[in-house]
Specification:
The complex is a heterodimer.
Chain A: E1 2-13, E2 16-28, E3 33-37, H1 44-51, E4 59-64, E5 67-68, H2 74-84, E6 85-88, H3 100-111, H4 116-126, H5 142-154, E7 160-164, H6 172-189, E8 192-196, H7 200-203, E9 208-213, E10 216-222
Helix pairs in contact in A: 3-4, 3-5, 4-5, 5-6
Chain B: H1 3-16, H2 18-55, E1 60-65, E2 69-70, E3 73-74, H3 85-92, E4 100-115, E5 118-127, H4 131-134, E6 139-142, H5 147-152, E7 156-159, H6 161-168, E8 177-180, E9 183-191, E10 205-209, H7 210-217, E11 231-236, H8 242-257, E12 265-269, H9 270-313, H10 315-323, H11 328-361, E13 365-366, E14 369-370, H12 377-404, H13 407-412
Helix pairs in contact in B: 1-11, 2-9, 2-11, 2-12, 9-12, 11-12
């Protein structure tokens, strides 16, 4: 599903070059649920951005479902984000003025999908917030907002969901519910899930935990 | 993303920020309103002037005396006493001048007219019967000056509508007598009301037989002793060419005046008058258009300003859209569509506003000037096109800026 080989990312801050990823190699198989843990500033977010086709590596290669990503243009990347990848963010990133339904429909607008309303409603049902379809983000709880965000990630039936600290802004009960949703999507629908988190208890829901430090993977644990 | 989709997205976005959208639109509304109303004033004054000129009769040539000269000093154009009634008679002969249909010589002066305790100072024009056809001045009541009146130098007058009103206060002036230069004249007719004031309109006027005015009111003679006329109005025959008629008239007059050097008369065609007037009002309209254009420019800068603010404010939204698969083109289209919708809406409302303003001011008096407005259809199309062009032109930079945003930076934007 995901193959990183020797991925390097260097940011230029004026004349100083700051290496953020220093030759990352890893493989994540289809249908896996993987957690990535590491201290802040270790380069997790940059890794996720490249994995999510929001950014390109400085060198090295990245293959997603056998497709070489590294040479693609911006608009092709946008197409891949739309069709194959669903994002879930720590801060939800919902459009504040749109209803839950409107937010979930958003990827379908750019994917040229038909029956958008019905498909968006289905996605909301899958994560259990169909009853909030007409509400705006500010009118529902944090846990519900994150469910709406997951519905948005799901609506185009992606093969990969990338979640960057999805429980970082939630209380422990909501966090558990959100993680349960991810596990369900992974086990029942076979969607590959990559989860970045600080919290060990969240990470332990994955089959595999990758430890990331100073721009490199430095070890992995496989859960029983 | 289809155009319809882009339209839906941008209308939703605009409806979400109602106040901001409204303020942006306001600039366009004011810009387009001023374009439409100012252009309508320009157009109105042009049509007004042209209709006045054609109201004086169509297909006319005016023959006027040249400048008088004392030794080597030239006087004003028209000051010379060179044209006579006999010249007019000669021009009326179809053998001499085949291009001419009718000839109406006139003399004019100003005098005090007194009747029934009222008095006015007005223009006295000495005319022949053909004047009513050539200069398009029919009587509403009574009779026009007749050939017999001209031959007999009768003491009769035809009053313009304004003079009749002023002297007789609504009563019928027919058969009454008026005094001009202490001589008694009988009123035989009243001219049809022309409407309006100024430029060549014949309401504030008194008409009398040309011979009567020459002998009883004025007393200017040519060097040869003939009775002079102020000008000769010449109506061309149907299908006659202006240049040819001018040539024929000039030939006759040169022959009659025994001229070898420069002409002592000038011939002006109505077309020239119209062309000159069109040039004046055209300049006027252009000037108004430029003023209105400036307000549109300001409106355009307003659009750009607010769209830049909007792009900055919605950086995160743009990041989200890009993250879920919006291409550059999609973002560009959304913001351009917003600019287009705003300016189209503003253009439409501005059009109605401008049309309303121009309807309101039409026929009203502003600092002594009656304004007339005409909104020609092409201005409507032009105004909307200009509004949309303004929106697109000033929207393209902010839209391109939005489209270029890096999705990661945009998502992190607070």
């Amino acid at each position: 599903m995901i193959t990183f080989s020797n991925v390097v990312k260097v940011y230029k801050m004026g004349s100083i070059e700051v290496p953020v990823l220093r030759g990352v190699s890893c493989t994540i198989s289809k249908g896996e649920m993987v957690a990535i843990m590491g201290p802040s500033g270790s380069g997790k977010s940059t890794l996720m951005n490249i994995m999510g086709c929001l950014d390109q590596p400085t060198s090295g290669t990245y293959q997603l479902e056998g497709q070489e990503i590294t040479r693609l243009k911006d608009d092709d990347l946008a197409g891949i984000r739309n069709k194959k990848i669903g994002f879930v963010f720590q801060t939800f990133n919902l459009l504040p003025w749109a209803s839950a339904l409107g937010n979930v429909e958003l990827p379908l607008i750019y994917g040229g999908g038909v029956q958008r309303r019905r498909r968006a409603l289905e996605a909301l049902e899958r994560v259990g917030v169909a009853h909030r379809a007409r509400h705006r983000p500010s009118e529902i709880s944090g846990g519900e907002q994150q469910r709406v965000a997951i519905a948005r990630a799901l609506v185009n039936n992606p093969s990969l969901i990338l979640a960057d600290e999805p429980t970082g802004n939630l209380d422990s009960r909501s966090s558990e519910e959100i993680v349960a949703i991810f596990r369900g999507l992974n086990r029942e629908e076979g969607i590959t899930i990559v989860l970045v988190t600080h919290e060990r208890s969240i990470a332990e829901n994955a089959r595999r935990i990758l430890h990331f430090r100073d721009g490199l993977f430095e070890g992995e644990e496989v859960m029983a | 993303m289809s155009l319809v989709e882009a339209l839906r997205v941008s209308v939703t976005a605009l409806a979400t920020h109602k106040l901001r959208s409204l303020l942006t639109v306001l600039g366009i509304v004011i810009g387009i309103s001023s374009v439409v109303s100012l252009m309508s004033i320009g157009q109105g004054s042009q049509e007004r002037v042209l209709s006045r000129i054609t109201a004086m009769g169509t297909n006319l040539l005016y023959v006027r005396p040249g400048a008088s000269s004392e030794g080597r000093v030239r006087g004003a154009q028209g000051g010379a006493a060179s044209l006579t009634l006999e010249d007019a008679t000669a021009l009326a002969d179809p053998v001499n001048v085949p291009s001419v249909a009718a000839v109406a010589p006139q003399v004019q002066t100003f005098a005090q007219v007194v009747a029934a305790g009222q008095n006015v100072n007005t223009q006295i024009i000495g005319v022949t019967p053909d004047y009513q056809y050539v200069r398009n001045s029919p009587v509403a009541d009574g009779d026009f000056i007749s050939d017999r009146d001209v031959e007999a130098r009768s003491m009769v007058v035809v009053l313009g509508a304004t003079v009749a009103d002023n002297l007789f206060q609504g009563g019928s002036p027919l058969g009454e007598s008026v005094k001009i230069n202490n001589r008694q004249f009988r009123v035989v007719g009243v001219l049809k009301r022309m409407g309006g004031t100024g430029f060549g309109l014949q309401d504030d006027v008194v008409l009398a037989p040309i011979t009567t005015v020459q002998s009883r009111i004025m007393a200017q003679r040519t060097a040869q002793g003939g009775r002079t006329v102020s000008s000769i109005n010449v109506q061309l025959a149907k299908g006659a060419k202006t240049e040819q008629a001018t040539g024929e008239i000039a030939a006759i007059l040169r022959q009659r005046h025994r001229l070898t050097g420069s002409d002592d008369f000038t011939i002006t065609s109505q077309e020239e008058t119209i062309a000159a007037q069109k040039e004046v009002t055209g300049t006027f309209t252009t000037f108004l258009g430029i003023i209105a254009g400036i307000s549109l420019l300001v409106a355009g800068i307003g659009i750009m300003n607010i769209m830049l603010v909007s792009v900055a404010e919605r950086t995160r939204e743009i990041g989200i859209r890009k993250a879920v698969g919006a291409k550059r083109r999609d973002i560009l289209m959304q913001f351009l569509m917003e600019a287009t919708v705003l300016s189209l809406f503003g253009g439409g409302v501005g059009l109605l506003g401008g049309w309303g303003v121009s309807r309101f001011i039409s026929g009203r008096t502003f600092s002594g000037q009656v304004l007339y407005t005409v909104v020609p259809p092409h201005i409507l199309i032009l105004a909307v096109a200009v509004a949309v062009a303004t929106g697109l032109f000033f929207g393209i930079y902010p839209a391109a800026r939005a489209a270029r945003l890096n999705p990661i930076a945009a998502l992190r934007y607070e």
